Amino acid sequence: MQKGFATLEIIFATMIIAILMGAAIPNVARVIDRVALDYETKKLYTDLRFLQSLNRMTNMKDTHFNTTDDNPINLIVYPEQYIFKRNSPNKIYAEHYFSNGVTASKKNGTELWRIKFDDMGKVTPAISDSLMLNSRFKKKTSIIFDSVGRFRGGRE
């Protein structure tokens, strides 16, 4: 009788652990999704600030980016990645793929976004739309640009 009771206790303990794990897994997936979206937003902010400061350096010579010419570096955002690119010569300097489940889009549905800063740090041409980063669980972060070169954003 004593052996059967111990087996029954093990079965109940296993069932309780399985129920708790079943309830915890969706929450863990949401947390991972939110962390990935926050990481990608911060990474994009950092790269935008880098690009803005790079295009402001009109009197400095950089051997890798060559910032002294009139052909600034663009940041081109696709749904799954973004790249630093100069049109002439057609050269890609860096690219970044978004984390699994994070995509980029514009509010109006266009799939391509080209961001270019002038030597004063302003976005050219003036942008009246905002860039959206979307996650698997429908969380969104928007990045809005204004006319003087500032950008801000937050979760929606």
Write the layout of secondary structure elements.
Blueprint lengths: L1 H55 L17 E4 L3 E6 L4 E7 L5 E4 L6 E5 L5 E2 L5 E5 L5 E6 L5 E5 L1
Explained architecture:
- This protein is of the alpha+beta class and 156 residues long.
- It has a single domain (2-155), classed as minor pseudopilin epsh fold (3-Layer(bab) Sandwich).
- 35% of the residues lie in helices and 28% in strands.
- It is built from 1 helix and 9 strands, in the order αβββββββββ.
- It has one helix at 2-56, and strands spanning 74-77, 81-86, 91-97, 103-106, 113-117, 123-124, 130-134, 140-145, 151-155.
- The strands form 2 sheets. Strands 3-2-1-5-6 form a 5-stranded antiparallel sheet. Strands 4-7-8-9 form a 4-stranded antiparallel sheet, covered by helices on one side.
- A hairpin with a 5-residue loop joins strand 8 (140-145) and strand 9.
- The protein is elongated.
- The relative contact order is 0.14.
Order of helices and strands: HEEEEEEEEE
Low-confidence stretches: none
- The CATH architecture assignment turns out to be 3-Layer(bab) Sandwich
Helical content band: 25-40%
Strand content range = 25-35%
Spatial shape: elongated
Number of domains: 1
Q: Gyration radius, to the nearest Å?
A: 24 Å
* Straight-line N-to-C gap: 60 Å
What's a concise summary of this model?
About 35% of the residues lie in helices and about 30% in strands.
